[in-house]
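cron nightly-structures :: item 1 of 1
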Amino acid sequence: MTGLAKSYPDPIQPNVVQHDGKGRACAHHGELIQGVFQDETGRLHRGLVTLPLRNMGSHAIFQRADRQGVSVVPPEKTKAAKAALLTLRHLDRQNQGGLLTVEGTIPVGHGYGSSTADVVASIRAVADAFTTMLRPSVVSRLAVEAEIASDAIAYEDQAVLFAQREGTVIEHFGDALPPLWVIGFKANGGQPVDTLVLPPARYSGEEIQTFAMLRGLAARAIRHQDPYLLGQAASLSAKISQRHLAKDQFETAIGIANAYRACGVQVAHSGSLIGILLDATAYGLADASRNIAEAAVAVGFRDVSVQPIYPRGGADEH
């Protein structure tokens, strides 16, 4: 890897004295649903259900040193460095530091969760350097503290309704997502979205009532492993998202999904991604995927790809 190291809070010359800690975290393909949801006390929380994408990810290596401070390579991975410092504090190792190296191939600014993947991988690497494994709830809380808002990728294949600005789970759905493939592409000419300047969506009362219904649909879909029901929930959430972060040719994507009897359409609620969902157990899956991908290319969508999510249900076997 090339690149200069940047140090937090002050420069150090790494003097490695312990074994390397390693961590990995997957990307995601936007969200299946995102909005505002009530907890058991009636309090409203911003929440989302992540669509994990396991064939992309970030890798981090943390080399412990015998003095305070974290150096990071490449230097622009400032959130990852902050996450490493927060993890050291959580482990009561704030008097120690080290060299954090982060690698990944996740595109930035489209809704793949590149920042969250870097942060979660870094937290896991620091914990591993101290031969510790942290619970997903702890990793998520540290990730939110490091980057303000975070997706639920620390929960791996557990489907959860996650409060992305609080780092807590609003509802555990009790299983993984049903078997899905997603034909993904970028709208808006493939231009990235600067999420740092994107204000949180302000939802109407009617939209908040709709989110409660979508939550129920998602819970039922996961309980019964029904990709079509989950696709319906995702499509309705995507249509609400269109009022807050519009994507060019969204209705064209809906039309393609309907033409090939797909389960539904999902989007990155803070990115440019659109995904058409297919039942991974359906007959003719390969032909349907190819036809949808060709149709998406024909109407001008960028970077079209076919991604297995849970090919045979439950944990991803790829």
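cron nightly-structures :: done
The two ends are 26 Å apart (CA to CA).
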